[in-house]
Design brief:
Layout: E1 5-8, H1 14-23, E2 35-36, H2 43-49, H3 52-62, E3 67-76, E4 84-87, E5 91-94, E6 104-109, E7 112-116, H4 119-122, E8 125-131, E9 142-144, H5 156-164, E10 169-170, E11 178-181, E12 187-189, E13 198-206, E14 210-212, E15 215-216
Antiparallel strand pairs: 1-11, 2-3, 3-13, 4-12, 5-7, 6-7, 8-11, 8-13, 9-10, 9-12, 14-15
């Protein structure tokens, strides 16, 4: 069974990472405590998302077509240190609210509609986590349960049951490396134990913005 994630090192150069961090500095991008969301409107991020290196990785997961639709910066350091419990990523941004089986828990973030999506929609998405700093054992790396995405959308209780019966894997990625993962892969992140920054640009791709005739992903 496919593990639902893969690491590719040395996708970006050191200079690429430096340029992205400059383009995503606090002087140009509004921050929350954990980073920044809705970054597809940032020219440097949009250019990276469409770059041949990332598109090749996304297409390997999705097929001939891969469309970037959401970008988020996660920024963990000694000053902004947090724990993320075991979960799946099930919320998707859409252009308008609708009624359809399997979609629910509607919310709005900065004027964008979000809904928790069914498995068939999430299976058409892959996330590429571009590491702008090394992700090491002591700075709160992503932890995953291999192949857990194959179980579909799970309840919190079902997720914890799987965690108790599985062996998590720490995803250690060099600066400039990319971690590809399915949204339904069960994952978590512990607090960092070091002062080293861990900045990750999380870019999501779909095989089409139109998931059905009346459901369209928003580009954020």
């Amino acid at each position: 069974m496919p593990p639902g994630f893969a690491i590719e090192q040395d996708v970006l150069t050191q200079a690429d990472c430096d340029a992205l961090l400059s383009a995503l500095s606090s002087a140009t991008v509004r921050r929350s405590r954990a980073g920044a969301r809705h970054l597809m409107g940032n020219p440097a991020v949009a250019e990276l998302a469409a770059a041949a290196e990332l598109m090749a990785i996304a297409r390997a997961w999705l097929g001939q077509v891969a469309v970037p639709f959401r970008a988020t910066l996660f920024e963990k350091s000694s000053d902004t240190n947090w724990l993320i419990p075991w979960h799946q990523d099930t919320a998707l941004p859409v252009t308008a609210r609708f009624d359809s089986p399997g979609w629910g828990s509607w919310s709005q973030k900065e004027g964008i509609h979000y809904a928790h999506a069914p498995a068939w929609a999430l299976e058409r998405v892959v996330a590429l986590r571009v590491h702008l700093d090394p992700s090491e054992a002591d700075n709160g790396p992503l932890r995953v349960l291999p192949a857990s995405h194959a179980a579909g959308v799970l309840t919190d209780h079902e997720i914890l049951d799987r965690v108790s019966m599985s062996s998590p894997v720490d995803c250690l990625v060099d600066r400039g490396g990319v971690l590809a993962m399915r949204p339904l892969l069960i994952h978590s992140s512990s607090k960092a134990r070091s002062t080293a920054a861990r900045r990750v640009l999380h870019i999501e791709y779909a095989d089409s913005l139109d998931l059905s005739c009346d459901i369209r992903l928003a580009v954020v």
